[in-house]
Amino acid sequence: MPFTLFHLGPGAVFKAIGGRHFSFMVFGGSQVLIDIEPLVRMELGTPILHGYSHTIVGAIAIGALSTVTGKPISEFVLRWRKIPHAPISWQAAGMGAFIGTLSHVVLDAIVHADVQPWWPIASANQFLGLMGYADMEWWCVALGVVGAVGVALRFAKQGRT
């Protein structure tokens, strides 16, 4: 199923570590953008769901698009919803976007046989089967909890980041 929330767990850890140098909003947007291809392929009924977008090359291209579009969209949404926040730098947008798309490819490669992360160089997927689907989801949830605690501690210690 595209647009899984489980991918946000690792993003919370990166936010806890990176603070204002990592945009969780752009990270989340990159998760949606990278899964547009599988959504379209599901609607078309094609046998391969994870195509070009779920390669390192595709992740880099979508990361660049996510950086350029994610910063202004995220800032607009935060202002519109009147959510206090530090400005999103281009560096933070880029970190969120590229970590988002590259981690997405790795996580999906672990559990989906049709992912070819190294295309066009190789069709092999060395990540496949490193853990089961349910185990990967639990790790993502655990990382989300750890990340949320880390972000809360950062907020308590330094104020909003």
Molecular structure report:
- The protein is mainly alpha-helical.
- It is 65% helix and 0% strand.
- The protein is built from six helices and no strands.
- It has helices spanning 8-18, 24-34, 36-44, 56-80, 90-111, 133-158.
- It is globular.
- The termini are far apart.
- The model has no long low-confidence stretch (mean pLDDT 93).
Secondary-structure topology with pairs:
Elements: H1 8-18, H2 24-34, H3 36-44, H4 56-80, H5 90-111, H6 133-158
Helix pairs in contact: 1-2, 1-6, 2-4, 2-5, 4-5
Compact overview of the structure:
The protein is an all-alpha fold and 161 residues long. The protein is built from 6 helices and no strands.
Poorly predicted runs of 5 or more residues: none
Distance between the termini: 32 Å
Element-by-element helix/strand order: HHHHHH
Large-scale geometry: globular
Q: Could you give a short account of the major beta sheet?
A: none
Annotation, overall tally of beta strands: 0
Strand content: under 5%
Q: Please tally the helical runs, counting DSSP H or I stretches of 4 or more residues.
A: 6
User: Could you tell me the radius of gyration in angstroms?
Assistant: 16 Å
Give the structural class: mainly alpha
- Share in helix: 55-70%
**Mean pLDDT across every amino acid position:** 93
